[in-house]
Write a structure and sequence with these properties.
The protein is of the alpha/beta class. It has nine helices and six strands; from the N terminus they run βαααααβαβαβαβαβ. It binds magnesium ion (MG). The site of magnesium ion (MG) has 7 residues, from loops.
Length: about 240
Amino acid sequence: MVIPGPVEAVLFDLDDTLVDHRGAAERGLRAWLSGLGLADDPAGLEQHVDRWFALEARHYERSQRGEITHTEQRRVRIRAFLPGWDLADDTLADDTFAGFLDYYRSAWRAFADAAEAIRAARAAGLAVGILTNGEQGIQESKLRRTGLAELGVPVFASSELPASKPDRRSYHAACASLGVEPSRCAMVGDSLTNDVYGAERAGLHAVWLDRHGWHDPARHGNVRTRVRRLVDLDWTPTRSRRI
Ligand SMILES: [Mg+2]
């Protein structure tokens, strides 16, 4: 897949683009639930997993919108997830959530094509950065744990930016740090909202990473550039590059 337009830089999303966040969360969650004695009944286990991710979707998004803090969204989630537990005390709630985090972190893995995609972009002469919604320290430790930190790619995490994706200020801050105009930068990621539509509104090129083949022409007809794997990205300049 040749990227449309002349680009000098690329910003990769992190979670579910370079690092398998969802897979780690699911593997970690199942191991943690097993330790809590909540995995004995297979049907019940699946309900717990579904409930966990529904709570994550609702409350993590609230923290991204600035309605609650990152710590508060964890407390709200763990109290809602374990309603029979007395987690009114903040320290107790934090400690309980930390139990999940231990399993989650030990399950972090980079996708097999992540390092190769970063090296290919650099080999094509592009500046490379990571633009991610999340806490700077957590996202950097994710890179260290998965080995991607060795590549020395700068991480622009929303906790240190003026705003989160899909606010245009997040993309513009990352482009400024890389020293490129937004119109010369491509954003690559798995989220249509954060990595495609938001990036295009901010003036960047956007590539949707559709690892699961969720593309539906009727719904996503306006997604111009889409790849199934990061190694399908082709940064080779072509004469036909016109927007
Ligand atoms: Mg993502």
